Amino acid sequence: MRSLEALTREASALAQGQAVWSADETEVARQMQICNGCRYCEGFCAVFPAMTRRLVFGQAELHYLANLCHNCGACLHACQYAPPHEFAINVPQAMARLRGQTYGDYAWPPALGALYRRNGATLAVALTLAIAGFLAAAVASNGPLWGGGLGGSFYAVFPHHLLVSLFAPVFLFAVLALGLGVRRFWRELRPVTSGQPASAPAAAEAVHDVLRLKYLDGGHGQGCPNEDDAYTLWRRRFHHFTFYGFAACLLATALGTLYHYAFDLPAPYDLPSLPKLLGAAGGFSLLVGTAGLWRLNRRRDPQHGDAAQKPMDLGFIALLFLTSASGLALWLGRSTPALALLLCLHLGAVMALFVTLPYGKFAHGVFRTAALLRHAVEKRQPNPVGLGSD
C-alpha cells in the first residue's frame, strides 16, 4: 500500500498544477543525488558523465538517464552504498524500472501503453501458434496442408498480393507507432540536453556506440557481470549476434522486395543469391544470439534488473528465436511435403513479431539510440555545472 506521505505529496503537486512523479522517478532521483556526490562510477558508462552535468533532476532528465543505462550491472558491484547499506543504491534496477515506465508513457496510441506489462513469452508463443493455426486452417480449406505438388513455391500456398495485404499494414503500423513514440521522447529530451540540434559528428558517434554496444563493456572492456560479480563479454556478443542477424534478415526481405518489383524475380531464391545469403546468415546469427540471451537472462542476478519486465524480455527473445528457427526450417523443408505447414508457422511467428513490435522489448533499442544521440550532442557543449569532468 502506498504511504500517506506519498499520497499527500501527490495531492499537493496536483493542487499546485505540478507534474506528479511516480515512485520509480522519485527513487531514481534519490539515487542520482547520492551518486552525484560520490562519482566513483563516472567512467563506467554514459549515465554518470551525463549525471555530473546536473545538480537537480527533473522528470525529463530522469527519463533521459534511464534510457542511457544499458543495464549492465557493473556499477552495482562497484558501489559502496549498494544493499545492504542503508542508502540501498542499485542504479541498474532503479533505471530498469523507470525505463519500463517510459516505454508505456511514450507509447502511441497512449491507450496501448499497458501492453508493455502484458507482453510475455507465453503470449508470444500463443500468438504465434494462433496466427499459424488460422493460416493453416485457411490453407486446409482450399486444399491439402501436407503434400507435394507445390514446386517449392510459397506463392502456390499464399498469393503474393495476399501476403502483402496482410503484412504491410501491420509492419507500417509498428513503424508509425514506434516513430511517434520516440518523437515525443525526443521532444522532451532536447530542451534538457542543451537544446542544440544533432550535428554530423554527434550522430556518427551515437551510431558508432550503438553498433558496437560500447556500454556493455563495463567501462573497462572486460564486459559486465551476469549471474555473479565476474565480468563477461557474452551478453555483448549475443546482443551482436541478435542485432546483426535481425538486420541481415530485414535487408534480405528488402532486397527480395526489390527483386520482385524491380527485376520481376519472385521468391523463393536459391544460393548464392544475395537475399538467400543474407537471410541464411541472418537467420543463423539470430538463432545463436537469441538462444544465448535466453540462457543469460534466465541466469541473471535479479538485482541487475526489474523482475516485472522479465516476461516482456523473454517474450521478445522467444519471438525472434521462433522467427529465425521457422525461417531456417522453411528453407530446409521447402521441397518437402511440409512446405505449407512450415510456411504457416513462419508467417505466424513473423506476424506475431510485427504485432507486438511497438509494445515489447524492441522499443529499448529505439529509445536508447535517441538517448545516446542526445548524449553525444550534449557532451559537446560547455558543462553548465562547471564541476568535475565530462
Automatic annotation (TrEMBL):
Keywords: Membrane, Transmembrane, Transmembrane helix. InterPro entries: Citrate_utilization_prot_B (IPR012830), NarG-like_sf (IPR036197). The chain crosses the membrane at residues 121-141, 161-182, 241-262, 274-294, 314-332, 338-359. SUPFAM superfamilies: 4Fe-4S ferredoxins (SSF54862), Respiratory nitrate reductase 1 gamma chain (SSF103501). It comes from the Bacteria. This is Tricarballylate utilization protein TcuB. It comes from Rubrivivax gelatinosus. The lineage of its organism: Bacteria, Pseudomonadati, Pseudomonadota, Betaproteobacteria, Burkholderiales.
